[in-house]
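Quick one, tokens below. Sequence please?
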């Protein structure tokens, strides 16, 4: 009986040992095969982005597909594959004449996905006039990459763009706070009369502080259904950081036209700058097919396929 008893003790000890919590000061390494897959994935993605910058779209497509094999269903790799397939198809239609397409390359590969708040109360919400606040199926959206938790910009007074669905809400609100949760800017505006994309620029005024280089800011944009009950708000939130561009980037930007600047900014990870340029170009040249394609390419590269066909609408003047 003793050998049997000892064997049972050893087995129980091993089982309990596997269930005991790991000490906080100990680091548990990934299994070798998982670490290798992660390493391969990162390598293929970076090689794909490098090939994209060089306009070698066939090579980029191959690298992104290999990354997708390492991590099936990955949002970054899936988006990259879809975008590059469109570029390759266009090049073929253009007689294999390579062009520079506007595609956003994220700088935070592998970091957590940004969480977007859709509202503070579930169920149907009514506006002050008793009508359904947002009657359709389309939702409030920020024009920021769906997989990137942080916008980067070189601008001291950046633009914030949002898709506002048809709404009976009387007003909407933009609030910008610093990293200490101090509100640095707050503005309430009337909602647009029709659904579309609105662009709100941080005004260049003495009483409105510009973004500081290296600082991170948090923003909230709300559709206010009922000003007496803010729990009914529809809200999207995000963060933005101002980055000082390096000399090489500035030199490259000075050599090219705005539409090419948009491509350079996007390839360099500056989503806001690229988006702001293209939104202005779309307003000034609404029938330009190249600008329209560039706009759609950028939105698609940020995971915003569902609003590529939405119009830019004028709604208000931000003060």
């Amino acid at each position: 009986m003793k050998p049997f008893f000892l064997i049972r003790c050893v087995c129980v000890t091993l089982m309990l040992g596997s269930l005991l919590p790991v000490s906080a000061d100990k680091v548990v390494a990934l299994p070798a095969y998982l670490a290798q897959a992660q390493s391969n994935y990162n390598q293929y993605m970076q090689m794909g982005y490098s090939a994209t910058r060089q306009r070698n779209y066939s090579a980029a497509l191959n690298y992104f597909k290999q990354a997708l094999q390492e991590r099936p269903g990955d949002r970054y790799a899936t988006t990259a594959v879809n975008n590059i397939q469109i570029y390759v198809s266009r090049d073929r239609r253009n007689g294999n004449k390579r062009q520079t397409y506007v595609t956003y390359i994220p700088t935070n590969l592998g970091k957590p996905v940004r969480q977007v708040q859709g509202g503070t109360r579930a169920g149907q919400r009514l506006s002050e006039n008793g009508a359904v606040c947002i009657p359709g199926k389309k939702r409030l959206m920020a024009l920021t990459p769906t997989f990137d938790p942080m916008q980067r910009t070189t601008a001291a007074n950046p633009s914030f763009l949002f898709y506002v669905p048809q709404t009976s809400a009387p007003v909407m609100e933009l609030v910008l706070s610093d990293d200490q949760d101090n509100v640095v800017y707050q503005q309430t505006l009337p909602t647009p009369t029709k659904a579309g994309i609105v662009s709100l620029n941080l005004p260049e005024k003495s009483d409105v502080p510009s973004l500081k280089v290296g600082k991170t800011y948090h923003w909230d944009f709300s559709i206010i259904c009922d000003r007496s009950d803010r729990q009914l708000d529809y809200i999207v939130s995000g963060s933005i950081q101002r980055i000082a561009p390096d000399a090489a980037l500035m030199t490259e930007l000075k050599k090219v036209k705005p539409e090419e600047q948009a491509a350079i900014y996007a390839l360099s990870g500056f989503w806001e700058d690229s988006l702001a340029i293209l939104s202005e170009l779309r307003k000034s040249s609404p029938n330009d097919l190249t600008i329209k394609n560039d706009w759609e390419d950028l939105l698609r590269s940020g995971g915003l396929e569902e609003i590529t066909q939405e119009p830019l609408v004028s709604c208000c003047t931000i003060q």
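The chain has eight helices and eight strands. The radius of gyration is 24 Å.
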